[in-house]
Amino acid sequence: MKNKLLYLFSILFVCSFFISCASLPGNKDKKKISYSYSTIEISESQDYLKTEIKYPEFENLPELNKRIANTVNSNYKNFKSYSKSEWDEITALNNRASSKLAPFEYLVSFEVSGSNNIISVLLNTYIFSGGAHGNTNLAAFNYDIQSGKFVDILQASSMTYNEISSICRNYLYKKLIDEDKNGMPPSEKDSLREMINTGAFPQAGNYELFTLDGNKLFVYFEPYSVAPYSYGIQKIQVK
User: pLDDT-based confidence at 90, cuts 50/70/90?
Assistant: First the structure.
């Protein structure tokens, strides 16, 4: 009974709501569109997992809210189930009282922006499950308030995949290769150029991560997609 009570007290779960307001920037002929959202916060601390989750819930936009909440909660549920068994297994292998395994981490943050009638939400999920470092995963949602539909990058930009890809590849060549100050050997430059060509190839799957902010459109690439982990997230303005 005592052990059960200790286990229960080792778990802390907090869910809270915060109201935020913002405006979608309009062009010269359109007024700004105001919208409000609540910030859903979930905090959970256990022996095997530390969780800090924040995501927005918009007023009177159920389809957008459903897509965001389902993405956050389904991914977290899957990782939480995995992390418990994985942490227990590693702990059993260590089997040392003096060597306590640090808990895994699941951290979700978000950014809200937009343009005219479109709301953009970018979710950033950091997952640590042991090893030298964690992994970062992004998810983007671009929702047209008037039509009630999600838009892709072609609809949002009025550009083609070839045009977007060309801008992204040229930017990455210059930033990561041409402006390299560490004396990268030719073989590494060739490998990095190949990663860029693959990750920024003109196809739909490579350009799902984008947001609008006023008259600017940004494309995002996760670590490992166009460059090694040490280069981090790549954010490119394409329009």
Answer: confident
User: Would you say 124 and 164 are in contact if contact means Cβ atoms under 8 Å apart?
Assistant: no
| Encoded tokens for 21 | 């307001």
Report phi then psi at 68, rounded to 5.
-65, -50
In this structure, of 56-60, 197-201, 217-221, the range with the lowest mean pLDDT score is 56-60
Please name the amino acid found at residue 159: M
Q: Are 235 and 217 in contact (CB under 8 A)?
A: no
Q: How far apart are CA 76 and CA 53, in angstroms?
A: 9
Taken in order 92, 98, 103, 104, is the CA torsion positive or negative? negative
How many residues are recorded in the chain? Answer: 239
Most trustworthy range by pLDDT among 19-28, 169-178, 182-191:
169-178
- Contact between 220 and 206 under an 8 Å Cβ cutoff? The reply is no
Alpha carbons 21 and 161: distance in angstroms, whole number: 33
pTM, rounded to two decimals: 0.85
